[in-house]
Amino acid sequence: MHISIKMAKVQKTKRKDFTESLTIPSGVELKVEGRKIVARKDSKVVERFIDPIINVKIEGNSITLGVKKARRAEKRKLGTVISHLKNIFEGIEKAYEYELEICHVHFPVTVTYDKAKSEFAVKNLLGERSPRLIKATCPEKIEVEIKAPMIKIKSYDLEAAGQNAANLEKIARIRNRDRNKFQDGIFITKKPGKHLI
Predict the structure, then answer these.
(1) Domain assignment present for 2
(2) Phi and psi at residue 96, to the nearest 5°
(3) pLDDT tens sequence across 111-153
């Protein structure tokens, strides 16, 4: 018995060029330096690396980013860069703010920030004699305000503000204890545009 099998033709989807443009806010100087986009306004400087597949063109007060014959992966990368640029433009005009709360059940916890050393210190967490220390990330870009039990970290650079908030939450994390009983620590309660509690 002879069985004939016909192979179905697989249609290849045509990949198209994909571009998107953004308006550069007035007063913001935007440059491409190698694989970096650098935004400057007064003393504020924010840098972001971009993927080599993304083409960047700056004309007047507009920046155009594009990918040739883009697939989904390339479109996602382009979308990420566009989001970074929007965050940069928004942050340069108005600073981002993270709020954290110091929580303690067993021992009163104290948090200090030494601007000269660019260092956070978490003291007396669970009665520990030695303070937990952590260096600030991009200290020149952040402003820290501590009014117990609240901590505010502000920055025109979203990544700098977010990283310092995350580092502070992490350094005060309690391990190998029952979290139902030991609820001490420092917790992010508010992110830009989002309340967590």
Answers:
(1) no
(2) -85, 150
(3) 999 999 999 999 999 899 999 999 999 999 999 999 989 999 9
Let me know if 90 is exposed, middle or buried by CB neighbors in 10 A (0-12, 13-18, 19+). middle
* 8 Å CB contact between 3 and 67: no
> What's the rounded Cα separation, in Å, for the pair 40 and 47?
9
Q: Is 88 in the same domain as 110?
A: no
**What does the angle CA 92 – CA 97 – CA 100 come to, to the nearest 5 degrees?**
160
- 44-49 and 119-123 beta bridge pairing: unpaired
* Shared-domain flag, residues 103 and 142: yes
What pTM, to 2 d.p., does this model score? Answer: 0.84
φ/ψ of 130, rounded to 5, equals -95, 135
CATH of the domain at 88: 3.90.930.12
